[in-house]
Structures are given as structure tokens and as C-alpha cells.
Amino acid sequence: MDALVVTGGRRLKGRVRASGAKNAALPIMAAAILADGPVRLKNVPNLADIRTMSRLLRELGVRVEREEKSGDLVLQNERPARVVAPYSIMRTMRAGFCVLGPLVARRGRAEVSLPGGCAIGDRPVDLHLKGMRALGAKVEVKHGYVFGSCRRLRGAEMYLGGPFGSTVTGTANVLMAAVLARGTTVIDCAACEPEVQDLARMLVKMGAGIRGIGSPRLLVEGVDRLSGAEHAVIPDRIEAGTFLLAAAATGGDVAVEGARWNDLFALVHLLREAGAEVEHLGDAVRVRAPRRLRSVDVTTLPFPGFPTDLQAQTAAMLAVADGISVITEKIYPDRFMHVAELNRMGAAIRKEGPAAVVHGPRRLSGAPVMASDLRASAALVVAALVAEGRTTVSRVYHLDRGYERLEQKLKRLGARVRRIKES
Ligand code: EPU
Fold this sequence. Notes:
- This protein has two domains: 2-19 and 235-421, UDP-n-acetylglucosamine1-carboxyvinyl-transferase, Chain (Alpha-beta prism), CATH 3.65.10.10; 22-232, Alpha-beta prism (UDP-n-acetylglucosamine1-carboxyvinyl-transferase, Chain).
- Helices cover 30% and strands 26% of the residues.
- The protein has helices at 22-30, 48-59, 87-90, 100-107, 126-134, 168-178, 194-205, 237-249, 265-273, 311-319, 338-344, 374-386, 397-402, 406-412, and strands spanning 2-7, 13-17, 39-42, 62-66, 73-77, 84-85, 109-113, 138-142, 145-149, 157-159, 184-188, 209-211, 217-221, 229-232, 253-257, 277-281, 284-288, 298-299, 323-328, 348-352, 355-360, 368-370, 390-394, 416-421.
- Bound molecules: uridine-diphosphate-2(N-acetylglucosaminyl) butyric acid.
- Residues 23, 26, 94-95, 122-128, 162-164, 167-170, 191, 195, 308-309, 331-332, 374-375, 402 line the site of uridine-diphosphate-2(N-acetylglucosaminyl) butyric acid.
């Protein structure tokens, strides 16, 4: 297994480009099941999760090829069309569950394994199933699989809010089913995340009738068939945000190219409150941070609130900021697995129910660490970049799920990072 060895203490400086958004690309790939023609996707990052989704789609009879010259991903339905999404694939990547809606809508039937357990806490799929049932699908859960079927879905009004607000992949799943339903569908409390907007725009290119994109109420006018289409996936706001936080933590000066200002408002405000200067430079977002940042309180919320996927990296940055910060998790109350590892590096963070109280500033020092999920691993890298001495971050496969060429990009910003093989 690979590990990253980071020697900290250098200010990050320079320019870096954000890759395509993993969480936009994954459901957009699933949308290929709905298409009658080929789907060509640009700006799809080369990540482990994308390869897993490709494997799942091939299992379902979709040809998926990465064109060598252009780097585009080309997807096309083939015969025989299969409908079983097996546990062996689903246990490694929850986003695979997004094939449920397209399979039932286009092929009339689906057997999709319930996703595997997750290190960031309980992640139910009840809202996905609620939406599918509202559209008239018969949905049963048996032997760890969801069995869905319907001859033709019919439009319906539904409320997709849960105890923690809207659901990102749930909205995507149900939206992909509703576009082929007979009649009108209203999805209320729909997720507004840029990734859901990107999927909706792609579906419109395929011929879907969707209004209200980006708002919490999506109106869908069902159509009989959808064509293939070409689409460029939006840049990854979480990857971009991770670079901005890492830059700020090290007192650096970094411009992230491709970062979309409007997708990063909540982070921009947090960084400014912490004392950094943040500028919108057309196609880039630039952060310039002083040697010492100030503490800030932050609460994660559905978009346009502060993203839970940047919470761990923010904790790492605030560990070295001056004063006490309170971080409250309103999406995944148990998503604090990074706290113990950050504390091993010298941070002073106390978990208090669904919140973490960060006492800064602390001098972090390098240590061998490992994390249990993607964003927690990213937080350890942020901490390692600030820490004195050498940090070995094990289980790099978590990072490889969501960050394309992370060590090369960090190196270009002046970080001392290398990948090693660990036994
Ligand atoms: N929820 C329910 N019922 C459901 C679905 C969700 O109660 O049927 C709850 C969840 O337990 C959570 C909240 O609703 O408390 C929001 O969950 P959501 O469904 O929005 O999460 P998701 O769609 O499974 C996506 C991202 C996650 C990101 C969350 C929140 C993808 C592939 N994954 O997950 O990304 O944390 O939205 O923004 O889009 C990551 O990239 O590291 C990652 C975990």
C-alpha cells in the first residue's frame, strides 16, 4: 500500500488547476444508462472512484472507454443490458447507488446492492427509495439488495428532505428517474449542490425537461426518450477548497485555476473571517494568508452552506489559527474521525457531540498517521504541510479516490511530498 511522506513547514505558493468534480462526474456517468446514443464526457478526473463507476457500468452493459487522445470518457449502452449492481462493487463506492433511478426508468428493473458501511457515519438511502416509490416504482429491500421495478414511471410531487436536509445523490437518483416518467414531477427540498446542477444541465442536453435547476424545487416534464450528449464536467470545488485551505494554513499565496467563485462562497467568507485575503481572478480563486490566522466558528450545511466535505481540512487549518474555533457538523454528526489523528500531531481539538472545539494556535509536529476516509486523509495532508518535520500519511488509497495527482500538484506549489510503498 502507498503512503505519502510530507515534510512540512513550507509556505505553499503558485498556481494549481482544479480537476473535474468527482461528485458531479459519478452521477453524470450513471445518466448514460438513460441515453439512446453515445455520451461524451470531458474533464472527468482520473480517480479510483471513476474507475469503480466505470466497472459498475460495464457490469450493467454500458461500454465505457477513456479516449487516449482527448482524455474524454465515452459511454454507450450495449446489449445485453443487465440490471444487477453487485455488492462486490457497491461496497467500495456509495455513488454507485445512483444507477437505481436510471435502471428502473430506462430498463424497467433494477437489483442494486445497498452500499457498504461508511467511515463518516450512518448513510441511509430511505429518501432515494421514497422518491422512487413516489414515481410509482415497486421497491423492495431483501438480502441486502434493493429490487426496483416499474413498466413506466409516472410523474409525482414529492418532498425529499430528511432530518439533515436535502440529499445530494438522492436528488440525482430520483431526478434521473423522473426525466423519463410520464407527466410532471415536482421534487421539493431538492439538493442545490453544484454537482446536482451539473447533472441536471447534462440531462437537459440529452433532451430532458427540467426547470428550477439550482433551486430547492425541481420541476420535471417527462419525455419518452433521451439522446446521447456531450458535456464538460464542472471543476471540483472540494479539491479547489482543499488547496485553498492548505495554502491558508501554511501562510501561503496560491491561485486555484478553474475554481468557480460562486461554488466556493462559504469557504471564501470563512477564509476572509480568518484573516486571509481572497480574490476572484476570472478563472481562478487566489488566497493570500498571513503567518497566523484567526479562529472562526463554522457550521456545515447543505449548499450554499459550508460543505461537510471541507470540514476536516478546515479543522486542520484552524488547529494552527489563533483562538478557539467551534466546528459544528449538521450533515454527518459523527464525521470527526480526523480529530484523534490531528491531536496526535499536536492539535488541541475536543469533540463535543456533533461539534469539535479547536484550541489554537498549536505547533503541529510530524507523525505517522492514517485516516479512515477521503476528506479525513486530506485533512492530515493539510496538517502535515504545516507541521514541523516529517509526516507519513498511510492508506493513500483514500486520497486516490478523490484527488487527482495530489502529490504532483502540491509539489508544484513548493511542498515537499513523495509517495512511497509501504508493506
Ligand atoms: N440522508 C438521509 N436519507 C437518505 C439520504 C441521505 O437521511 O436517503 C442524510 C444523510 O445521512 C446525511 C444527509 O442526508 O445526513 C446528506 O446526505 P447526502 O445524501 O446528501 O449525501 P450523499 O449524496 O450520500 C454526497 C457526496 C458526499 C458528501 C455528501 C454531502 C457524492 C458521491 N457524495 O453524498 O461526498 O459528503 O453528499 O454533501 O456526491 C466525499 O466526496 O468525500 C463525500 C463523502
